[in-house]
Write a structure and sequence with these properties.
553 residues, alpha+beta, 3 domains, Ubiquitin-like (UB roll), Rossmann fold, Alpha-Beta Plaits, six-stranded mixed beta sheet, elongated
């Protein structure tokens, strides 16, 4: 591969790359604001300017470019020598930072971006110790530009990332640059609002605190947040995300770059659709129809009694009434959840009916000009659940939700295990009507609904951010995700519930659920060999310890 030298060290690069992209690929820091790999190059922030020398093709001698060159725009070339730390380059960096801070309010203590602001970082690294500007600053207005985004114009550095995003990625063109010089500002076109399905991405794109998320505004300081790599648990897209949380509570969801899936973007549906995780109506304790509610001060006793009740009901269904068992596995669950639940059902009844729960759809798939696609399918793992159930069914048909309803209504089944975990009410009148013929209904769900109201035994499950597992998206890509927070109060992951039920049936102590060991076990089953080596795990970056000194007041 061709090589260039940056600040005295040789680095390889791919033909066609800019100097800046080559540097970033090699983890060489070059300050930049306006450049983003998913957007066009405009070279208007000027902080990435560097001294560049290049071999003369005739003499072979290194010759300097006559002036500083924007590294985001200049193509890298074999033998090129670049200096971002030379006196000229450093003087430019200081001048750019001084220029950008002339009218900036410097309100870092009350800015949501503080702690992850490039203006803050570069001011510390490349700026001056104090401002030489003594005149009055220009004041720009604060604007409500859409249902999810606020614009603090006086913090804006006019990198135009947000404008290019609405032109090139979404094609909706809501944002523009208004005015010139020191009064220049970002604005929305008259009569328009920033209200497209990807609008929240402009907050991620903004390198300063100009564009802010209304939902996250003043909620948490970013240095207190912990990031856990996860996968979109609401739609079939399989978008890679980071769940940002603190003290067992999710505060925001942001995109995690994956060039093969969602690149740098996520939909607002995924960004804000996790709120049901902390719903006040979440199911937190098991319940048994016909008996008093369990004491929340004795959760272990509640679970012990509920698990024993399920085991007794399942044994009676098979040995006393000689009826079959049916299990409906929700497409909102992970592959590992489906595996443990189906294994448990088959251990009770080898002829148990296995079925995939309802798969919600809204409209049709929509692809934006930038190539990002919103999936109409609103379930993260319909394919993964079906893959697991078909492997365990060993050639027997696996029903869909309609097939489950028809079979249940026949009266052949004396017990049914039904799982939900949808972000909203999902039980159809047809499903509720068919289940009336079943004597024992075990509902495993996260939110109360018509099913939990009629169920014999209700077991509280966990949302996807409360457990680890894997999903198979609409393109067949298997992706692993990690547990971000503990399950709410006394809920458990569906895998752990299945392990508890299996242990009660065998008269032993239940093992703890582990996603990695479950995948290793699954890979031994014919048809599930992919679980050993085809699950894309999130890449982990080195943990950076904060140098902030915490002082208790």
């Amino acid at each position: 591969m061709p090589e260039l030298t940056i600040n005295g060290k040789k680095h390889t690069f791919k033909p066609g790359q800019s100097i800046l992209q080559a540097a970033l690929d090699q983890d060489v820091e070059v300050p930049h604001y306006c450049y983003h790999p998913g957007l066009s190059v405009v070279a208007n922030c000027r902080i990435c300017l560097a001294e560049v020398w290049q071999p003369n093709p005739k003499t072979g001698k290194l010759e300097a470019f006559p002036k500083l060159v924007p590294t985001c725009q200049q193509s890298a070339a074999e033998g090129m020598v670049v200096y971002t730390d030379s006196p000229k380059a450093v003087a430019n960096q200081k001048s750019v930072m001084e220029f950008l801070l002339i009218n900036h309010p410097v309100d870092c203590p009350v800015c949501d971006q503080a702690g992850e602001c490039h203006l803050q970082d570069y001011s510390y690294q490349y700026g001056r110790g104090q401002s030489r500007f003594t005149e009055a600053k220009n004041k720009q207005p604060k604007k409500d530009i859409g249902p999810n985004v606020l614009l603090y114009s006086d913090r804006c550095i006019m990198c135009t990332r947000c404008v290019r995003f609405t032109r090139e990625v979404t094609g909706t063109n809501e944002l523009m640059v208004d005015g010139r010089g020191s009064t220049e500002q970002i604005d929305i076109f008259p009569g328009m609002a920033l209200d497209n399905e990807l609008s929240g991405n402009v907050v991620d794109l903004c390198p300063v605190g100009a564009l802010l998320d209304k939902d996250f505004l003043f909620q948490q300081r970013v240095w207190f947040l912990k990031k856990t790599p996860s996968i979109d648990g609401i739609t079939a897209s399989g978008d890679n995300i980071s769940v940002e949380h603190n003290d067992g509570r999710v505060y925001r969801v942001k995109p995690r770059q994956n060039d093969d899936v969602n690149k740098w973007w996520i939909t607002d549906e995924v960004r804000y659709g996790w709120k049901f995780v902390h719903s006040e109506s979440r199911l937190t304790l098991p319940s048994i129809k016909g008996r008093d509610a369990f004491d929340p001060l004795k959760p272990m006793e509640a679970w012990r009694e509920a698990v024993a009740a399920v085991d007794t009901a399942m044994s009676a269904c098979r040995s006393v009434k000689n009826k079959n068992l049916a299990i409906l596995v929700s497409p909102m669950l992970s592959c590992e959840d489906a595996y443990h639940l189906a294994r448990y059902a088959l251990s009770i009844d080898a002829e148990a009916m296995l079925a995939v729960g309802p798969v919600p759809f809204q409209g049709e798939d929509k692809t934006f000009p930038g190539g990002f696609t919103i999936r109409a399918e609103k379930a993260p793992n319909a394919r993964g659940v079906r893959r697991v159930l078909e492997a365990l069914a060993a050639g027997k048909p696996v029903a869909n939700a309609q097939g489950f309803e028809q079979a249940i209504a026949s009266g052949k089944y004396g017990a049914a295990i039904v799982t939900g975990n949808y972000p909203s009410d999902w039980v159809t009148p047809a499903l509720a009507a068919s289940l009336k013929s079943v004597e024992t209904i075990v509902a495993i769900d996260t939110l109360p609904n018509a099913l939990t109201a009629m169920a014999t035994i209700v077991l509280p499950g966990a949302a996807w951010v409360e457990k680890a597992g894997s999903f198979e998206n609409a393109t067949g890509r298997l992706q692993g995700f990690e547990q971000a927070i503990e399950p709410t109060e006394f809920a458990k992951s569906e895998s752990q519930i299945a392990l508890d039920l299996a242990a009660a049936r065998a008269g032993r102590i239940a093992a703890g659920y582990c996603a990695a060991s479950t995948r290793a076990e699954m890979a031994k089953v014919a048809g599930l060999e992919c679980m050993a080596n085809a699950v894309h795990a999130p890449e982990h970056t080195a943990t950076v310890e904060s140098d902030m000194v915490m002082v208790e007041l």
